[in-house]
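Hallway conversation turned thread

IA: we were arguing at lunch whether anyone had actually written out Endonuclease MutS2 end to end. Turns out nobody had. So, for the record, here is the sequence (769 residues) and right after it the structure tokens. Reply here if something looks off.
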Amino acid sequence: MEIEKILNLISTYTHTDYGKAYFFKNVKMYKDLTELDREVNISRVFFDMAIKGTLKDLYGLSYIPSIMEKISNKESVEGREFRKIGEFLEEGYAIHKYYSGINDLLTDKLSDYKPLLELKDHIFKVFTPEGEIKDNASIELKRIRNGIDTVKRQLNIEFNKIKSKYIKYLSLDQPVERNGRLCIALKSENRNVIKGITVGRSDSGATLFVEPDTIIELNEKLTDLFSQEKNEINRILSNLTFELQKNKFKIEKNIEIIEYIDGNIAKARYAKDMNAVFTQPHTTKKILLKELKHPLIPKEKIVPIDVELDRNGMIITGPNTGGKTVSLKSIGLAFFMAHSGLPVLALKAEVPFIEEIYTDIGDQQDISQNLSTFSAHLLNLKNILENVNEKSLVLIDELGTGTDPIEGAALSKAILKYLLMKGSIIFATSHLSEIKTFSLEEEKLLAASMSFDIETLKPTYKLMVGVPGASHAIEIAERLGIDPQIVEESKINLNEEFSQSEKILSRLTSIHNEYEESLERIKKKEKEIDKMKKEYEEKLQKLKKKEIESLEPELYQLKEQIKNMRNQIQTILKEIKQKKDQIDSQEISKKLKESENMASQLEEMRKTLSQNQKGRKIEKSKIKVGMKVKTSNNIEGTVKRVTNSKITVQIDGSPIEITYNPTEIEPVINTDKEKNEEKRIYVKIDQKKSVKSELDIRGYSVNEAIPEIEKFISDLISSGIKEGRIIHGKGTGKLAMGIWDYLRKSSLIKDFKIARSEEGGTGATVIEV
């Protein structure tokens, strides 16, 4: 099925050699459904990140597997290679930290990564970015190198003394190194001018290299210090190599995790670029592959196929060069990729869970083993038949060919029956008429064919499900330019029964093509109607919006009237509260009558405003996440999730789920201040009645409780009582939340809180008016 080519293709979306290694080391068909589901979910996480543009690239990540191999083989490692390991640990840690923090799924999958920060710090302490060993790699090395610098300065001083005194006898005015010792270049005719040891001469003999007696001791010191430096460096590298060997398996595990991350990034980028999907195989036999494409065929040339199957197998027939083998491979690849956590190149993909894919595709002829094409096919089929079970997918190309058609058909039918008995899923192609008939007779099989345009004598490469196809061998021969006389003779040679059968199949193909074309036209019309409907709805919304906007001045005026009336009512209540002992009952009754009249007018205004505001709901009728909403029992909150007909609303930090219904939930348009102004005020005071500071509303609904609470608050205010207690019980908490929502918006409430435990705890609320 050319799986290696597919993996090569997807690996081009990686950014490092780690990702490329992933596709050839770790991609496999998962045999455990739970493990496969997890991998598909992880792939979808990366795909979502690709869509959102939040993938973190791995550009420039140091590649160290070959270095780790040298360490495993105890080969010498260069300074720059040590440094690369440190860079990998630093960069890899940042990559791991980013992706493991995406969600719990990735946190768990990437949990085996070991930061090894101490090892990284140790490497960076020893080596410069260029791989040179730093002076402060150890205290001892720093001491030695300081000593070397000191001796070199002393040597320089001594040389300058010699140069100033003997400059005319020297060939060079700079010291030279010979055999690891510092020397002067002396003209050979002046050998006796300076005492010292001759350590060499130039090729011409004109210059002698002399180590003056005055620097012999310093040279000895320098040689000794160089030896100490080498020994200390060897000790440092030996310790560091030991540390790397000790952490070898941890580093290799980190490499695997980085490979896994980059591999998943590549899968996600490929899926986004190719509009592919990640699918989770299921436990039924249903197969649905919508607009399936072969990954290796260029976009501009590919013809998608639709595969829908609720039986055990499909027999695909039709002409040569019609696309049967490509369709077979495309189906096989869809199964392989779905079971490997790779994206399937389809608009929609549903496949059953399997454990093995068996194929018999292509020419199996093997000259070295003296096998004909037919024999090679049989040996391959023998192996398949010995191993298949109900969790196997079997793909057979050109079933029954390579031998006598009658015997080939008989053998093919027996093979198909055996595979059906085993419960395997089968996709096979064939030209044999007997197999075409069998695919129609066997209820566990579904006939299909590659369509062929009779008029142009060209294949369309479209898969037609439910209809077997004619081979059109003679028509194809005619199109390819075979001598017309031969073509005509061929038509005569066909027996009447076979010819009639092929004509029926051709007619079926034509009818199916006509049906497909009609269906395509209907779909096109439906799209046009949907477009017109959408345009109409948009225009309607604009008209309604314009109508609503025209009401804005009126709405504003109503709000101002409500605001003024509320202020007047509050003034009356305040006056009653302050002067209830100074004014007679007749005056109180008069004031109360005024406030009740105002409250009645206020309620009418509130209803008018509410009716006008309902018009606004038209343009905001679609509930969205983050929207402020109000339920039918006047509880407000924020939409956190919308799924099908369910809406989760966050209320006071506790999410509750309510069923979406336009009559039960609506967007909140008013500001908090405006909402408060719309609230109904209950004003009624009975001076003669003794007012209690406690209200018991257990068993009430929120809608039933609010009027009682309003009356309770009015009674408290008229009696000069500043604090009261509302007993609502604990229950589900909905009544308490509804009450708190009301109290929070009431301008008559100064404060409210949950009662103390001895007063009822969360089953009661204390209010301050």
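OS: looked through it. Residues 138-222 form one domain.
IA: good, adding that to the notes. The radius of gyration is 44 Å.
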